[in-house]
Amino acid sequence: MFGLNAKNTRLLFLVIFLVAFAPFLMNPFPTDSAMAQFNAGYPDLMQRFVIFGIFAIGFNILFGLTGYLSFGHAAFLGVGSYAGVWMFKLLGMNIIPAIAASVVVAGLLSVVIGFVCLRRSGIYFSILTLAFAQMMFSLAASVLTPITGGETGLTLSLNDPRIFGAGAVDGNIPVPGFFGLEMRSTYEMVMGGWSFSFNTGYYFCAIIMVLAFYASIRIFQSPFGLMLRAIKTNQTRLNYTGLNSRPYTLAAFVISGMYAGLAGGLMVAMDPLAGAERMFWTASGEVVIMTILGGAGTMIGPVLGAGAIKYMENIVSKINKGILEQWFSFMPDGMSDIFVTLIYPFIGKGWHLTLGVVFMLVIIFLPGGLVEGGQRIKSIFSRKKTEDTPADGAKTPAE
Amino acid sequence: MGILEIKNVGKRFGGLQALGDVNLSIEENTVHAIIGPNGAGKSTLLNCLVGKLIPDTGSVTFQGQSLLGRKPHEINQMGVSRVFQTPEIFADLTVLENIMIPCFAHRDGAFKMNAFATLRGQSDITTQAEQILDDVNMLEKSHMHAASLSRGDKRRLEMAMCLVQEPKLLLLDEPTAGMARADTNNTIDLLKEIKEKRDITMAIIEHDMHVVFSMAERITVLAQGTPLVEDTPENIKGHPKVREAYLGEAQV
């Protein structure tokens, strides 16, 4: 369907199902229960899941297919954000021009950066992209303050021109919307002890993510995608086969830069505020970790990786000492203290430690990321099935 | 006038004169072997032909067009394919995908942005790829990963990848290096078969005299960066200068 084979169609429907029912899937625990803090179904976080999913899907087109590891993709995300906020300031609060501008500006920037950085491959390419991204960050934080708002960030104000929209609504800055549909509007559904929130902004981002995911599947299974995979495995052979690897890598770089710009545009569409820290190198590192954690080079891996990391960032970091003590309160005094002390460094502000441990375990035991983990579980079950069948077959004649 | 004309080519690496003053003409539809001891400059010469190196002096023309300063993919698109000493294939891709890539290069040129086409939709490419796999007896392996092929099969695959582009000139860099005698003979048979079926010129760099004398129609002996002598295999065997420089211990 849609020009996809059966396997990829299933994958697409799986993603559609996951994002469509995320408000339920992310809120499995009743609001008043002790487990409620593991609920991730609030609009803000769900928006981040899908936005970073888009970012990672795009990054995977470059890194997963061509093997070029960019350490500067946050620059495109940041530039996309700034472009989006400027559209809100100049044109109006409709998110369509903002998102379009984000994609275009990030695309243009990636043409320039890609053209320079793709002269080298391997670690030199990574370092060049890192250098570019840090340059962009420093510019945004200092020299370009009139455009970027410097360290305080770029925010909307009541004095913005907004030629096609209202400058102010009831004396307040208007909120971003899709032809009048406000992104922040949320419908709360209460069912028994559960409460589920359906947020306009989330569903807008989710639709965009499904489209972005669909486009990425198409790229993966196209002749163009085949050439990108060929670049990863043997660039020498590709060149001696009459194919010019440079335009292929540049095209992949620009496409993934535009994905990053799209993610940046959506971020400001949800919350019209852009800061330079969005372009810091740790933000670039985060998308690398997301992609590898989920499974680089697989289609769904980056989405899973983005979800896993954003979940940990927001949920593990919210667990504090008091909650820990509550968990272990059933134990004798001395023992609960020991457990609390042992686990304490991994929660709250220490969530990076948890992430680091999880990341190391995945790299060592599942080099193919979470997707490989899923495949292994699947193969265990299918092996059991095939082992069962001959056993049954042997039994039948005896009966 | 041959299909490939090499005139006064010289190449120096620091203090080492890798190629002195090479003049070589390869006639169309012949198998031309270039032999010589280690360090004679055979591989340097080959690298000058495919755009990997640019010679310091001299000229290289293919069908009347200069190859100097052209990129490897441009030279390939002109009809020159190269088989490497250690097979260069796309190890992470399947055998069929390996063959499809040169098919695309042959059909679409050096770059085509067809990101929304599907691989399965390219029936002409798949047919062509399966055809050539059948020719080299690898059709049943078409869905294997190229990395898991035996070395002999990797070599066959690489040759098939070159042949599917219908090159006018095929450059072979020690195609039987490190092979057992049986595999060597298979490779010789394969190359002879290719030669019979198509109009193709081959330039072979080889150490194995068995391969050279069972295939080559002309032989150039290279020593210390300069061609010592160029002649037919019969004359080379008995040539005193060649025996002295190279064949002395080969007992042919």
Describe what you observe in this structure.
The complex is a heterodimer of chains A (399) and B (252). Helix content of chain A is 66%, strand content 5%. Chain A is mostly helical and 399 residues long. Chain A has a two-stranded antiparallel ribbon. In chain A, strands 2-3 form a two-stranded antiparallel ribbon. Chain A has a two-stranded antiparallel sheet with strand order 4-5. In chain A, a hairpin with a 2-residue loop joins β2 and β3 (181-182). In chain A, α3 crosses α13 (301-315), α4 packs across α11 (245-270) and α5 packs antiparallel against α11. Residues 390-399 of chain A have low confidence and may be disordered. With 252 residues, chain B is α/β, with parallel strands linked by helices. Chain B folds into two domains: 1-79 and 169-175 and 200-252, 3-Layer(aba) Sandwich (Rossmann fold); 82-166, P-loop containing nucleotide triphosphate hydrolases (Rossmann fold, 3-Layer(aba) Sandwich), CATH 3.40.50.300. Helices cover 36% and strands 24% of the residues of chain B. In chain B, α3 crosses α4. The two termini of chain B are 32 Å apart. The chains are: A mainly alpha (399), B alpha/beta (252). Chains A and B meet through α9, α10 and α11 of A and α2 and α3 of B.
Give the helices and strands, then pairings.
The complex is a heterodimer of chains A (399) and B (252).
Chain A: H1 6-20, H2 22-25, H3 43-66, H4 73-90, H5 95-117, H6 122-141, H7 145-148, E1 154-155, E2 177-178, E3 181-182, E4 186-191, E5 194-199, H8 200-220, H9 223-233, H10 235-239, H11 245-270, E6 273-274, H12 281-294, H13 301-315, H14 321-327, H15 333-343, H16 351-365, H17 369-398
Antiparallel strand pairs in A: 1-6, 2-3, 4-5
Chain B: E1 4-13, E2 16-26, E3 31-35, H1 42-50, E4 57-62, E5 65-66, H2 72-77, E6 80-83, H3 95-108, H4 123-135, H5 151-163, E7 169-173, H6 181-197, E8 201-205, H7 209-215, E9 218-223, E10 226-231, H8 233-238, H9 240-245
Parallel strand pairs in B: 3-8, 3-9, 6-7, 7-8
Antiparallel strand pairs in B: 1-2, 1-4, 4-5, 9-10
Helix pairs in contact in B: 3-4, 3-5, 5-6
